[in-house]
Design a protein that fits this description.
Blueprint lengths: L3 H6 L3 E7 L4 E13 L7 E10 L8 E9 L1 E3 L9 E4 L8 E2 L15 E4 L3 E7 L2 H10 L6 H18 L5 H7 L1
Parallel strand pairs: 5-7
Antiparallel strand pairs: 1-2, 2-3, 3-4, 4-9, 5-8, 6-8
Helix pairs in contact: 2-4
The structure holds zinc ion.
């Protein structure tokens, strides 16, 4: 375990720039940890990156950036359908059909319209380590809370090795 002074004596990196369609942020700091829910069979997964802001000018001390990825596509007109419209011919090679709206074994023609789920970036600007934990509990994409819990706690345990704010009490909020 390290102390706050030890962390702060390390040179911060950056500036890190995170830009979403609605807002963004730019800061220098320390990349504390990263984690992913991806496995070799994931059709949907989430990558997570956690940063601590150096010399914060605002109340934002931690930045958590998550990116939800999906290879799942739907047929238009179903309750589950969402995403960007394209034809079957334009789907990426690793695209996977949604079994709610596409029957197993059903082969759609090359020109058929489908909806490929969009990737979803999320930016959390957090005051404290506890707020980071709460943000991770809120982030349920990637197969639901249960699947996300192991990579999320993995992220927090990695952060605990380099940032004393993620102490046992804070990790307890999650586990
Ligand atoms: Zn569907």
């Amino acid at each position: 375990m390290i102390t706050d002074e030890e962390l702060e004596s390390r040179r911060p990196s950056g500036p890190f720039k995170i830009q979403l369609s609605t807002h963004g942020t730019s800061f220098t700091g320390w990349h504390l940890a990263e984690s992913t829910t991806q496995t070799s069979t994931s059709a949907r997964w989430t990558d997570m990156d956690l940063y601590r802001v150096a010399n914060p000018q605002t109340e934002v001390h931690y930045v958590l950036f998550t990116m939800g990825y999906s290879n799942v596509y739907h047929q238009p007109g179903h309750k589950c359908s969402s995403g960007s419209q394209m034809s079957v011919a334009l789907l990426p090679e690793d695209a996977e059909p949604c079994w709610s709206c596409i029957k197993r074994g059903q082969v759609l023609p090359e020109g058929a319209p489908v909806l490929l789920e969009d990737d979803i970036p999320t930016l959390y600007e957090c005051k404290t380590a506890v707020d980071v934990v709460r943000a991770l509990l809120d982030n349920k994409r990637g197969g639901g809370k249960q699947n996300a819990s192991r990579p999320a706690s993995d992220l927090l345990h990695k952060a605990a090795l380099v940032d004393p704010a993620f102490d046992a009490d804070v990790l307890e909020v999650r586990l």
